[in-house]
Amino acid sequence: MTGYARAEQQGPSGRLSWELRSVNHRYLELQFKLPEEFRPMENELRQLATQRVARGKVEAGLRYSRDSGSPEGLQIDPDRLAAVLAAVERVSGQLRTSTAPDPIKVLAWPGVVRSENTQDIAAPLADAMLLFQTALDDFTATRAREGERTRTYLLERLDAMAQIVEKVRIRAPQVREVWLERLRLKLNELGVDIDPARLAQEAAMAAQRLDVDEELSRLDSHFAEVRDTLARDEAIGRRLDFLMQELNREANTLSSKSQDAEMTRSAVEMKVMIEQMREQVQNIE
After folding, report:
1. C-alpha–C-alpha distance, residues 107 and 270, integer Å
2. By three-state DSSP, how is residue 23 classified?
3. pLDDT at 206 over 70
4. How far is CA 35 from the centre of its chain?
5. What is the three-class DSSP state of 52?
6. Continuous segment of H or E residues that includes residue 17
7. What was the pLDDT predicted at 257?
8. 70: pLDDT confidence band, cut at 50, 70 and 90?
């Protein structure tokens, strides 16, 4: 199921920002994008996520920027600075230039400046964990709202298909009578006398071939099962996926038995709706 959440926090140790997003997926796939110093918490983050999310491809990204603090909070690594300046001087000599290095660029070189807070990562880790839970709450709430909209969509399609089934149920006996009348007319045109018992036998065989009562009853049963499943407060995605397959099977059988253009159109309408429902079901946990 699609979902999105963002949570930010500015604290003494710096700025933290979580971003969670998900797209449709049949199973749960978690991807965490974390700064290197936050990698030790990934397993715990996964456990928290799997307790709240059962399906979908979920990406969770954390951004962290340390508080710059005051100038006294920074330390220069003299050895690293000396190495950088020596390298600059050597390159300048080879290029035969006397341009002085830019102090800001030198300070930006990795390792030249050390923050007194870099060794204490415990506080940012704890803050990131709490902030992740806040983002996860918002994320699951967003998905719940999306789930309710999907539930309404599926129920509307079920109601529409139930109406189609009733139309077919009314139409089916008429189709059998029309077929039998066509058979009588054809025999009259050919001038063929047929034994009434044989005609009754042919009519019975045709009625059996055209009978869709069983398919209609199973469709009604599947409609009820889908409604019951949608009312459950648990993971229902895979069950709904199975029920969509069953609905599609009955619609195909109904189409193959149809000897009437109107019934065929009805079967096609149901197959289109079932496919629409199947696409939405992929979003449900």
Report:
1. 68
2. strand
3. no
4. 27
5. helix
6. strand 14-23
7. 80
8. very low
Instruction: Compute the distance between CA of residue 45 and CA of residue 40 in angstroms, rounded to an integer.
Output: 10
Q: What is the pLDDT of residue 97?
A: 78
Structure tokens at 207: 């009625």
* 3-state secondary structure at position 61: strand
CB 165 within 8 A of CB 219: yes
Q: Which of 181, 185, 188 is nearest to 203 (CA)?
A: 181
Pair of tokens at residue 183: 């058979």
Residue 21 predicted with pLDDT over 80: yes
The CA distance from 143 to 153, in Å, is: 15
Q: What is the dihedral of CA 244, 246, 252, 253, to 10 degrees?
A: -160
Distances (CA, A) of 134 to 20, 33, 160, 225: 11, 17, 40, 36
What's phi and psi for 192, nearest 5 deg?
A: -100, 130
Q: Which two tokens stand for residue 203?
A: 């009519």
Q: What angle do CA 216, 222, 228 make, to 5 degrees?
A: 145
Element (H, E) at 78: helix 78-95
* pLDDT tens digit sequence for 113-158: 765 544 468 889 999 999 999 999 999 999 888 889 999 999 999 9
Higher local confidence (pLDDT), 273 or 98? 273
Distance, C-alpha 211 to centroid of its chain: 39
Amino acid, single-letter form, for residue 179? W
| Count of other CB atoms within 10 angstroms of residue 236 | 21
Residue 191 φ/ψ region, left for φ over 0, alpha for ψ in the -120 to 50 degree band, beta for the rest: left
In one-letter notation, the amino acid at residue 58 is V
CB 65 within 8 A of CB 14: yes
